[in-house]
Design goal:
elongated, 6-stranded antiparallel β-sheet, alpha+beta, 11 strands, 8 helices, 269 residues, single chain
Length: 269
Amino acid sequence: MAEAQIILSHSRESGIVAIASGEQYPWAHTALAESGFRRDDEGVYHLPEHGTGTTVVDLVKCAKRHRTSVHTSSPRFIGDAARDFARHLPGQWHASVEIYSHPAWQEDLVPCIWDSGELGRALQSERIPYAATLTDMVQGTMLLFVERPGRQLDYLVGAFAPEGLEEGYGDPHAPRSVVVPPFAGRAAQAVADRYLPSYEQAVHARRTAAIAAVLRGIRSEHDTWQTMVASGRYSDATPLSAAALGSATEKFLDHAWRRSSPSSTTPRH
């Protein structure tokens, strides 16, 4: 594939839209700008409503001069599909388009995805130059919505790691992404009925595991502290003075308090 590509799609509101992709994506930006396309805040290029009459043929010729290939995506623009999907989900969801023009941007996305299914694998092995994010404006849950690689009609839906959760992709507690059809109502029902409940269960399991890990750490430290107090000596057999005992006790209690505080054990979502 060429080092720079222009991916064309159709938006019901804007007509033909374009996305630049590839390691040399600035070449595609130049070709689009010279062809009359204008870039919006999400990084998607549109022809102005009263454009210069640029055609796809004109764009292809211009792109060729800038060593850029032109391709077409599915008939439906990812932004339209995501917004329709968001309107059918229960609650208040906001959809926005994400552009990963350079492959490295997609690689940076992988650690943020909390998934043990097809979406996580696809992000590591397939080129995904654009996607959409959906954010629950009340709960803060964030979903990633992408075209399923190799399937022109299906989509993959998975979640970003909840705030405060250090592990993303590869976490054994992560939920499995789901495949949804190109029909917004059916897709939203599948996510509402199956995926979101499994996501909430995964968050609960991860929170429980985090608390259990903290308690094991505190118990281990407490056992060490008890042994030291009973023997009157440090682990290297050095005598333990009364002042040192008080200091060690204060340190143990302070450390235990910090480790057991909600901010250190509870992932927020």
